[in-house]
């Protein structure tokens, strides 16, 4: 039986322009907008094209999406086309007026990037003094307007010890979710990868802690760009004799690049995700339906038998598959094994994991 792949989430980089200078930025964002980014009418065509064949959550991101003066025109067009819309922002440009307008559009949620539990940590990573305070002010404005808020946190060496406090912060401010992103060496992240990437053992330790904390807090905790978290959840669920989480807010397949997710750049290029710079198509030349259905890049990502190294031999390859972006960054082959996973295929058993009891 042939599996039918349907996009669940589409990330759309409306602009690479941004008011911050984040040291890990995927988009290598700049203070000025590119003259080559899709203009408003072209953006409307992308919305119509997407809505014609699918109904994914459309996440408007950047750069900083609010940098575009036509941001609300594009967001409104997407909502009128029937697409659920979410916004990923650094939060510093959100005031009561912006929050009210987002509420009027009934956006699904707004994610705000918080990369430290303190201003000192966050601001050093974000490249602008006062960024933490401004982001917290933006979150407060969203809360006043009744807009659901999600916290996004990129974890690296500089802030991993603050992760417990960041989770507590997300709970305290009334966020509906906190999503954990493991640093992927792409864009500006390439420049800091050697000093900021956590060793694989540290990833395993903190993802295990994150699972435990997810069982205790009243908000959704999800690990993104850390597909082996899906393995950890399955292993721990077996140990604890609990059902594996599923459905909205639950556990999805590890890496969704090209199988449930794709990314549209500010230039109209389509990629499996924002961290995997392997072009799958171009909205200026092809329809999104054509790209999604016929791209050879997506076809490879949908075939777990093409996974290399220990990912190809792993019993979790159909549910985890490893981070294809980190594999590409390390080897130049996006189907190579995940370089930041310590698990050895076939090594998990209930007896061994419980200490032989």
Descriptive notes:
36% of the residues lie in helices and 13% in strands. Helix 1 (40-51) runs parallel beside helix 2 (71-80), helix 3 (96-104) crosses helix 5 and helix 8 (200-214) packs across helix 9. The protein has 357 residues and is α/β, with parallel strands linked by helices. The mean pLDDT is 90. Strands 7-6-5-4-3-2-1-8-9-10 form a ten-stranded mixed sheet. The protein has 14 helices and ten strands. It has helices at 40-51, 71-80, 96-104, 119-126, 131-145, 163-172, 189-196, 200-214, 228-239, 288-294, 296-301, 309-313, 324-331, 350-353, and strands at residues 9-13, 57-61, 85-89, 110-113, 149-155, 177-182, 220-224, 261-264, 269-271, 281-282.
Give a brief outline of the structure.
The protein is built from 14 helices and ten strands.
**Overall outline:** globular
Task: List low-pLDDT spans.
Answer: none
Q: Strand pairing plus helix content: what structural class?
A: alpha/beta
What's the total count of β strands?
Answer: 10
Protein topology:
Layout: E1 9-13, H1 40-51, E2 57-61, H2 71-80, E3 85-89, H3 96-104, E4 110-113, H4 119-126, H5 131-145, E5 149-155, H6 163-172, E6 177-182, H7 189-196, H8 200-214, E7 220-224, H9 228-239, E8 261-264, E9 269-271, E10 281-282, H10 288-294, H11 296-301, H12 309-313, H13 324-331, H14 350-353
Parallel strand pairs: 1-2, 1-8, 2-3, 3-4, 4-5, 5-6, 6-7
Antiparallel strand pairs: 8-9, 9-10
List keywords for this structure.
single chain, 357 residues, alpha/beta, ten-stranded mixed β-sheet
